[in-house]
Design brief:
The chain has 210 residues and is an all-alpha fold. It contains 9 helices and no strands. The protein starts with a helix and ends with a helix.
């Protein structure tokens, strides 16, 4: 796996992370009442969910897809359509100037234990269709044919570290950084870039051959 591949994956994963979504919403609810330890427990749950999705993409999906050309075509077209849909939705939100979801979040009423915060972080990403489709549709495009599973897990680790790099400071300095995350111009820019990138990868996936 080349450095160019890792950097390309990191760029796409970073856009997915920085786009408004349930992870930021969960941290916005958790930290004010449960503290920074619970916020980092959320992030730990996010990372474990990434490895679950990555394992499925590396082993389960690859076996199923390679067994059947028709299945490969179906997964490819569904994944491409989903990526393009995410991209077009992000572009539409950027054009409309839709506010970030964090603006509408109220803190949780009761403190969370670390185990509960970890579990909420895990379930938020394990059951998130955007993350699932990212690993089904986009992730395999960065896996070189014949490469070892460990090299693919490197990409999952990159995703987890970028997630920590984005949400870690948000946990430590929540009040200050939450204002940055809520900035309307920043959100429109991120959504616009995300939309272009995801549409591009969707079109790339649509033309991918088995």
């Amino acid at each position: 796996m080349t450095a160019t591949t890792v950097l390309a994956f990191a760029a796409m994963a970073a856009l997915l992370i920085m786009s408004p979504g349930p992870n930021g919403v969960l941290i916005a609810k958790t930290v004010p009442t449960s503290g920074k330890a619970a916020g980092f427990a959320n992030i730990g749950g996010f990372a474990v969910a990434f490895f679950v999705h990555g394992t499925f993409a590396i082993f389960g999906l690859s076996v199923l897809v390679l067994q059947s050309a028709n299945l490969f075509l179906a997964v490819k077209l569904v994944g491409a359509a989903y990526l393009i849909w995410i991209g077009l939705k992000a572009l539409l939100d950027a054009w409309r100037g839709k506010p970030a979801d964090l603006l509408k979040v109220l803190p949780a009423r009761r403190p969370r234990t670390l185990a509960k915060a970890f579990g909420e972080g895990f379930l938020t990403n394990a059951l998130n269709p955007k993350v699932a489709m990212f690993y089904i549709a986009a992730f395999p495009q960065f896996m070189a044919q014949g490469s070892s599973p460990m090299s693919a897990y490197l990409l999952v680790a990159v995703h987890a570290l970028l997630n920590l790099a984005w949400f870690g400071p948000m946990v430590l300095l929540f009040e200050r950084l939450s204002k940055v995350a809520r900035d309307g111009r920043l959100q429109r820019y991120l959504k616009g870039v995300t939309g272009i990138v995801f549409v591009g990868f969707g079109l790339k996936l649509a033309t991918l051959r088995a």
